[in-house]
Specification:
The chain is of the alpha/beta class and 195 residues long. Helix content is 38%, strand content 14%. The structure holds flavin mononucleotide.
Length: 195
């Protein structure tokens, strides 16, 4: 029997916070720094540079940050979003990013999970809105990989990463869960198409 080559899963990590000491960004930075084998992570850092969404912008007049966002979304097998809640919903900058994905269908059938690092019982408003937007964008929400893992401001080390080994492992488990989902989907497609 021939062994199938192990495929690397590419996961785009998207923080909804633009704050320098962001706990959401730190959780994703930790995921990026400690990603398990066979998982490649891309840490998105273009949120501040994205221009305000313009619904009738022609493709040939798109700003470089929008083109780069679309390139990364295309490259990614899946996306992990970690976002704070602002005023009961998503931060405007993250909603702006998500709006840019709508005209081209960049999130169509794209597996997406979320990480909620807010204190227990917080963040539900942001996640509810995120679900509405992802459903509209026809993304595939990976329910098994969506987790609440509290990361407080005092949980970050001098290196800007989550210092607790246990929490880092929980975050890594989210990545593994996303990769397992992507692999299962690929297997389904292979079986359906007789490959
Ligand atoms: C403008 C603003 C609005 C906020 N609104 C809410 C809110 O509606 N509900 C909530 O639980 N926290 C709210 N917060 C608190 C943030 O969600 C919280 O501080 C979060 O940890 C920030 O994430 P970060 O560390 O990644 O920047 C708000 C914070 C700011 C700056």
């Amino acid at each position: 029997m021939q062994n199938r080559p192990v495929k690397t899963t590419t996961i785009l990590l998207l923080s909804g916070s633009t704050r320098a000491g962001s706990t959401n960004s730190a959780a994703l930075r930790s995921a990026h720094a400690n990603a398990p084998v066979n998982i490649t992570t891309i840490l998105y850092d273009g949120l501040r540079e994205l221009p305000a969404f313009v619904a009738d912008a022609d493709d040939d007049e798109l700003a470089a940050p929008v083109i780069e966002l679309r390139r990364l979304l295309q490259l990614a097998d899946a996306i992990l979003i970690s976002t704070p809640e602002y005023a009961g919903t998503l931060p405007g900058s993250l909603k702006n990013l998500l709006d840019w994905t709508i005209p081209n269908g960049d999130l169509y059938a794209k597996p997406v999970a979320w990480l909620n690092v807010a204190a227990p019982g917080r963040g539900a408003g942001a996640l509810a809105t995120l679900r509405v937007v992802l459903d509209f964008a026809t993304a595939e929400i990976i329910s098994d990989a969506c987790r609440s893992i509290f990361v407080g401001r005092d949980a970050l080390g001098d290196d800007g990463l989550v210092s607790s080994e246990e929490t880092r492992e929980q975050i890594n488990d989210v990545l593994r869960s996303i990769a397992a989902h992507v692999a299962a989907r690929a297997e389904e497609v292979a079986v359906t198409s007789g490959r």
